[in-house]
Write a structure and sequence with these properties.
Blueprint: H1 2-24, E1 33-34, H2 37-45, H3 47-56, E2 62-63, E3 70-71, H4 83-91, H5 98-116, H6 119-130, H7 133-141, H8 144-150, H9 153-164, H10 169-186, H11 189-211, H12 217-236, H13 239-249, H14 273-276, H15 303-318, H16 322-331, H17 352-364, H18 367-384, H19 390-399, H20 414-433, H21 439-468, H22 473-478, H23 481-517, H24 523-542, E4 551-552, H25 554-558, H26 567-573, H27 580-584, H28 586-598, E5 604-607, H29 617-621, H30 634-644, H31 651-658, E6 661-667, E7 672-676, E8 684-687, E9 689-693, H32 696-702, E10 711-715, E11 734-741, E12 744-751, E13 755-762, E14 768-772, E15 775-777, E16 780-782, E17 786-791, E18 794-802, H33 805-842
Helix pairs in contact: 1-5, 4-10, 5-6, 5-9, 5-20, 6-20, 6-24, 7-24, 8-10, 9-10, 10-12, 10-33, 11-12, 11-18, 12-33, 13-33, 15-23, 17-20, 17-21, 17-23, 18-20, 21-23, 23-24
Transmembrane segments: 7-25, 98-116, 121-141, 147-164, 169-186, 192-208, 220-237, 348-366, 371-392, 412-432, 444-463, 499-517, 524-541, 812-833
Keywords: Membrane, Transmembrane, Transmembrane helix
Protein name: Membrane protein YfhO
Length: 844
């Protein structure tokens, strides 16, 4: 009876999560969709991939849409036999973002049920976790892969705890394997990596407990073996994805450096430290886990508009010289954010009540949870400081495997956002339910922590201006007193409102706990009050960053690259900052569309209006010189940094010719101009002059000054390629593209002499195969980043095709691992069924 009643409560909790998720996302009822910046960029960059899939029913693992061409592994490619990803799709069946919110709630509910085995506390913890502000900021930005990964944090940890803590080996194996597989399928390795840094503390905690004989060493070894097997199988179910990305990442900005210069050395792996640590949390900024506007909110808060109006008035009233204006402009950054990061979309707010209960949890929770959660919390906070704690960051970058592959250390706070709700509900459960904790101890800790927390907030309210400053060093250096004083006062007002709220929320929670302790209040009523107040707190803060303004009509969400404007569109766009770029870019999009419709051959466009390397409008209509992607191929990124950071009027055109930029889009958004580039090299050309160089630095320097139609720059290490392959000039020789698909290109050539054919296609050493008259031949890299192949004299059919072996191998490993998971899970369930049957027979 009790079991059935518990199932009813669980079902009701699931319904509550669905209702809350829909209530937060009410515009979905009217058919509106989220407008997310990164998803807009994805739609442009992945257009060729999506079109190819729709036209052929097949998948291409290479696309020419961005950066001259790159693998699609990080662009939404699908893998055949990818069963685990299909399961992920089924779990995320609700409309976006309802699906993410619901899964965040439901996943933590499972963790709560494992940790405390009480649906009330699990439900409360689910709202603590599922309403963490950072998640809503990420959803608004379009970081769907990140949120998709985070939604499996809690259930994965639940599976591990089932094994280590609950000793339910079979169920633990099933849950751990399933959610490990789902987490990897969500395809955000950085988030998974950060989670496992924290889980390392759980492993050490269990090892120490075994050494201290608090748990049997046999149990620890069996549990660790089960978890290791679960993780391996979960990873194995994603073999295609992992193997392809592992192969790809070596050739990207996350892989080894190729060049040697001031910022990095050839052969070093990962990104340079400056790029890695650019988004580092300030030490004091960490307190915005507790007070959201401690350092302001996002860089673009609504209050900033009113502040800017007043700033302009003050400048007009007080500034009389251009020199002073220039000085002021140097000091200006964001009006509504004054932390250490270059900018931010909002704070990683965890909730005042959640932070308060987490502090209590470190005193009340069982020791088997307390110490590893504390250790993981401290480490991740320190790592989030990044450049503000270089001793630790340097150690991890230099000595901890894979850490230097990831940027934006501030995002590691997702671990805290998982662990604080967990320790909070465990501590709260013990406070209410565990008689081992003496009432005097509870009262003392509640007094100290509650009083200390409230006192801390009061100190900030009274002495905040001197303690927090409310300005940046840059502002202090360049802004005159009349502006600095105004900013400090307005920012303090923003902070004060949130600080007072935090004081009230913590006071309510502490009072409720005290009343329960004195038996003046029912525990269930106390949980309800804490839940409602915390829900109100997090909900209202989250609505600053993800609200109805983030939803737009379906036509804008699915086709943000409009080519026609109208009064109706202008009416819909008016006042919505998310949609304003759509209207502003209509003329540019129309120009791109016109180019693509008039010239359907294969070429690239250089768009210098929208920000070449931060837009995918161009990619939506045609292959682009630029694009928007965090994991570009290293060689292409090197060329961008070498030539496009400083627009040399001679060298840049040479690079554009090399990359077959047949059209340049110049001018402004209102009157864009499409300018044909007759000097573009075309899709392929023959060269007979080879310039051998000794280093990658010489290679990249040479391509900006040579006549690339006549000369190819070749690394000296490829000299042996030309043994027995002479290259001789023939002015009548030609090579033409006859068929183009993103993963297969066909050419016809004619030459009286042997030639080196250079292709305006990006060199990638894995998966591309060259065939001359259907006989596979080796190829080399030329001009630092292009493909080249030796072509004998005569008439020839040349074909290059992208057939990565890693996809084929990975598919079978994935299927075998999923089959192993089903087999072992089935055997485990059968064992449990038999065991249960024996107990029933025995009358147990």
């Amino acid at each position: 009876m009790a079991k059935n009643k518990n199932l009813i409560y669980i079902a009701v909790s699931i319904i509550v999560f669905i209702v809350l998720a829909f209530l937060y996302s009410t515009p979905v009822f009217t058919g509106k969709q989220l407008f997310q910046h990164d998803i807009v960029q994805y739609r442009g960059g992945a257009k060729e991939l999506i079109d190819y899939r729709a036209d052929t029913g097949k998948e291409t693992y290479w696309s020419d849409s961005m950066f001259g061409g790159m693998p699609t592994y990080q662009m939404g490619s699908r893998f055949t036999g990818d069963i685990i990803k299909n399961i992920d799709s089924k779990l995320n069946f609700l409309p976006r973002p309802v699906n993410y919110i619901f899964m965040l709630f439901a996943g933590f509910f499972l963790l709560g049920m494992v940790a405390v085995r009480n649906w009330k506390y699990a439900l409360l913890g689910a709202t603590f976790f599922g309403l963490s502000t950072y998640f809503y900021i990420a959803i608004a930005a379009g970081h769907n892969g990140k949120i998709n990964t985070i939604e499996y944090f809690a259930p994965l940890l639940a599976g591990i705890l089932l094994v280590y803590i609950r000793r339910q080996y079979i169920w633990g194996f099933i849950v751990t394997t399933l959610f490990m597989g789902l987490q990897i399928a969500a395809n955000h390795p950085q988030m998974t990596y950060y989670l496992f840094l924290a889980l390392g503390f759980l492993f050490l905690s269990e090892l120490i407990r075994a050494i201290q004989k608090k748990i049997p060493m046999k149990h620890f070894l069996i549990s660790s073996g089960i978890i290791a097997a679960s993780c391996l199988i979960g990873v194995g179910m994603n073999s295609q994805r992992i193997m392809a990305n592992s192969e790809y990442v070596k050739e990207t900005v996350r892989g080894k450096q190729i060049l040697t210069n001031d910022s990095h050395t050839e052969g070093n792996s990962g990104m340079d430290k400056e790029s890695m640590l650019m988004w580092s949390y300030g030490k004091l900024e960490t307190l915005n886990l507790f007070i959201p506007r401690l350092m302001g909110g996002g860089s673009q808060e609504p209050e900033g508009k009113e502040m800017m109006t007043r700033v302009q008035e003050l400048v007009q009233e007080n500034v009389s010289s251009q020199a002073e204006m220039d000085r002021i402009s140097k000091g200006f950054g964001s009006l509504t954010y004054w932390g250490d990061q270059p900018g931010t979309s909002g704070p990683a707010y965890q909730g005042a009540i959640v932070c308060f209960l987490a502090l209590l949890g470190f005193f009340f929770a069982w020791k088997k949870y307390r110490y590893w959660i504390l250790g993981a919390t401290i480490l991740t906070i320190f790592l989030a400081w990044g450049s503000n704690f270089m001793a630790l960051s340097d150690f991890f970058i230099d000595f901890v495997p894979l850490y230097n592959k990831f940027r934006a250390p501030s995002s590691i706070l997702v671990v805290v956002e998982l662990l604080f709700p967990l320790i909070a509900i465990i501590g709260l459960y013990r406070f209410f339910k565990d008689n081992e904790l003496a009432e005097e101890y509870k009262q003392k800790i509640l007094l100290y922590v509650g009083g200390g927390t409230l006192g801390f907030v009061l100190i900030l309210l009274i002495f905040g201006k001197s303690l927090l400053g409310f300005h940046t060093e840059n502002e202090k250096t360049y802004l005159p007193p009349f502006l600095l004083d105004y900013l400090v006062e307005e920012r303090f007002k923003l902070f004060r409102i949130d600080a007072i709220k935090a004081f009230i929320y913590v006071a309510i929670a502490a009072s409720v706990l005290f009343l329960v302790l004195k038996q003046k209040l029912n525990q269930n009523i106390a949980l309800l009050i804490i839940g409602v107040v915390s829900l109100f707190d997090l909900w209202t803060v989250n609505k600053r960053y993800l609200n109805d303004d983030n939803y737009v009509d379906k036509i804008f969400a699915e086709n943000p690259f409009q080519t026609e404007s109208s009064d109706l569109m202008a009416e819909k766009v008016q006042g919505n900052p998310n949609l304003e770029p759509i209207l502003a870019n209509v003329n540019v999009n129309k120009t791109l569309e016109t180019i693509a419709e008039k010239d359907k051959t294969h070429y690239r466009i250089f768009n210098n209006i929208l920000g070449t390397f931060s837009e995918t409008n161009t990619s939506y209509f045609k292959s682009s010189i630029g694009g928007y992607h965090a994991v570009k191929l290293r060689r292409y990124d090197d060329v961008i940094n070498e030539y496009f950071q400083i627009m040399d009027s001679v060298k840049v055109p040479n690079i554009l010719n090399l990359l077959n930029a047949k059209y340049l889009v110049l001018g402004g958004p209102e009157q864009p101009q499409a300018i044909p580039n007759p000097k573009a090299n075309g899709n392929a050309w023959f060269v007979s002059d080879l310039k051998f160089v000794e280093s990658p630095n010489q290679e990249i320097k040479s391509i900006g000054v040579i006549d690339s139609k006549k000369t190819a720059v070749i690394a000296s290490s490829d000299k042996k390629y030309f043994e027995g392959k002479p290259v001789q000039p023939d002015s009548s020789a030609y090579i033409n593209l006859t068929n183009y698909q993103p993963n297969e290109l066909e050419f016809k050539s004619q030459s009286k002499t042997p030639q080196l054919a250079v292709f305006s296609e990006i060199y990638y050493p894995h998966g591309w195969k060259f065939f001359i008259d259907e006989k596979e031949v080796p190829y080399i890299k030329a001009d630092y980043l292009l493909r080249a192949v030796h072509v004998p004299a005569g008439n020839h059919d040349i074909r290059m095709v992208f057939e990565p072996e890693v996809i084929k191998k990975g598919k079978w490993i994935s299927l075998i691992c999923f089959g192993l998971f089903i087999l072992l899970s089935g055997a485990g369930m059968y064992f449990l069924y038999r065991k249960r049957g024996k107990r029933e027979v025995a009358g147990v």
